[in-house]
Design a protein that fits this description.
8-stranded parallel beta barrel, binds ligand LLP, alpha/beta
Length: 438
């Protein structure tokens, strides 16, 4: 892909010699140069920035592409997106602090979440965000009380609506149906508006909805947008002023074939068209995509530890990345392509069941056609979103290193903790210097 300024943005591609590359640099070389051990996340910052730039430019002035930082909160990524004009969608005080530290303007930050603590509400009030997205009438009363305690005025609020829209996605990532804990149901909107009007300190600025993740078709996105627009019509008819409508994220990506990934700007175009159609073309639009900006532009490089071939014929390929590094297969039965870093033409491939070292049966990435004998290094594709951000240190495994590639080189490396740091943090003990690095 070529950007408007002419620089190449490669993403993850295979070169003429069969080497898998990130941002045009062979991944094997990236790992070697960075000097980190595997598993390691590798990201193409230029490709991520290019998506942020396209989405920002697809929006009219005042409207915001608020990157859902939960997808990947790494500083170099968030800073690159903020630099391209993106705002940030946060769901905790920690994410809020991180977003502000990356230089985003508070007016470009929205904050959702069903159970924000008082200290988190206080932080959000003090930061003067574009909107605190409230998810229940009870929360509005708590927010009003905190605003009064802090003596704050003009606290921007948006009601996150639960429009009871079903999307065709995994049950664990559908959020807009009436059984979900998220958002204010249609029957409670009146009470929510009253609660906001009761407080002289809160100011209704917007309405939002996020109906789920992995939406592959615009029509499904349009269903959520229509629900927000219809609500806006009703709310404005009651005399409430609005500044923006937030139609959420959820722009899908294909985990099997990147060419099947919908162009994310199509979701933006759909939302803008629907707003116009409903007579809300005067309002600003906020969208909250996470995955669409980062998923395809990150991989996990993992090393094959050994095969294990059982007498019954099952061929396990045991690797050093596990469910603690990428939880999606275990949690959502997600499929991520797994490929050799270097592939040679005509090499024999067999079905391997790829599994990690974690002491859980669900630490199993599924079956893949891979060379036999297996290569030393593999890439787990599309791990840029919800990989490192959902990682854990389960089984006393350190959070893996991250390498950020930009402009044909390594722009930054975040190195995994060594054994000494892990022991020190977990046990409060200090290992003798060098004990983990013999
Ligand atoms: N806005 C809100 C209010 C959300 O709840 C979410 C995701 C997003 C935006 C961003 O959604 P995206 O554009 O990334 O699909 N861990 C799961 C996804 C959980 C998403 C939760 N909320 C996964 O790995 O598929």
């Amino acid at each position: 892909m070529q950007t408007e300024r002419g620089e190449a943005t490669h993403g993850i591609t295979r070169d003429g010699e069969g080497r898998l590359c990130c941002g045009g640099v062979p991944l094997a070389e990236v790992i070697r140069t960075a000097g980190v051990s595997t598993p390691a996340y590798v990201y193409d910052l230029d490709a991520i920035a290019a998506v942020g730039r396209r989405l920002s430019r697809a929006l009219p002035r005042g409207s915001v592409c608020a990157y859902a930082i939960k997808a990947n909160g790494a500083g170099p990524i968030v800073r690159a997106l903020v630099h391209e004009g993106c705002g940030v969608d946060v769901v905790s005080g920690g994410e809020l602090a991180a977003a502000l530290a990356c230089g985003v303007l508070p007016d470009r930050v929205v904050y959702s979440g069903v159970a924000k603590r008082d200290d988190e509400l206080d932080r959000a009030i003090a930061a003067q965000l574009r909107g605190i997205h409230v998810e229940s009438v009870e929360e509005i009363d708590r927010l009003a009380a905190r605003a009064a305690a802090l003596g704050a005025r003009d606290v921007g609020v948006a009601i996150r609506h639960n429009p009871d829209v079903e999307v065709d996605t995994h049950a664990n990532i559908a959020t807009g149906h009436d059984e979900a804990k998220f958002g204010v149901a249609a029957e409670d909107i009146g009470a929510a508006l009253e609660a906001i009007a009761r407080s002289p300190r809160l100011k209704l600025r917007g309405l939002s909805a996020h109906v789920g993740s992995q939406i592959m078709r615009e029509e499904e996105y349009a269903a959520g947008v229509t629900a927000v627009c219809e609500l806006a019509t009703a709310v404005r008819a009651q005399g409430f002023g609005l500044r923006y409508l937030d139609t959420g994220g959820g722009f899908g990506v294909s985990y099997r074939d990147e060419h099947a990934t919908p162009d994310p700007t199509r979701f933006v175009a759909t939302a803008l068209a629907k707003m116009k159609e409903h007579g809300h073309g005067d309002l600003e639009l906020v969208v909250e995509p996470g995955r669409a900006l980062v998923a395809a532009h990150g991989v996990i490089v993992t090393r094959v530890i050994q095969p294990k071939v059982s007498r019954t014929g099952r061929r396990w390929l045991l690797v050093d990345a596990g469910m603690n590094d990428l939880l999606r297969p275990a949690l959502y039965q997600a499929h991520h392509r797994i490929e050799p870093l270097e592939s040679k033409p005509g090499e024999a491939r067999v079905a391997w069941r790829v599994a990690g070292p974690v002491c859980e049966s669900s630490d199993d990435f599924g079956e893949y056609l891979l060379p036999d004998p297996p290569p030393a290094l593999l890439a787990i594709r599309d791990a840029g979103a919800y990989g490192r951000s959902m990682a854990s240190a389960y089984n006393a495994r350190p959070l893996a290193s991250e390498i950020f590639v930009a402009r044909g080189g390594i722009a930054a490396v975040r190195t995994a903790d060594g054994l000494a740091e892990t022991i020190e943090r977990e046990l409060g003990l200090t290992l003798a210097r060098g004990a983990d690095r013999s």
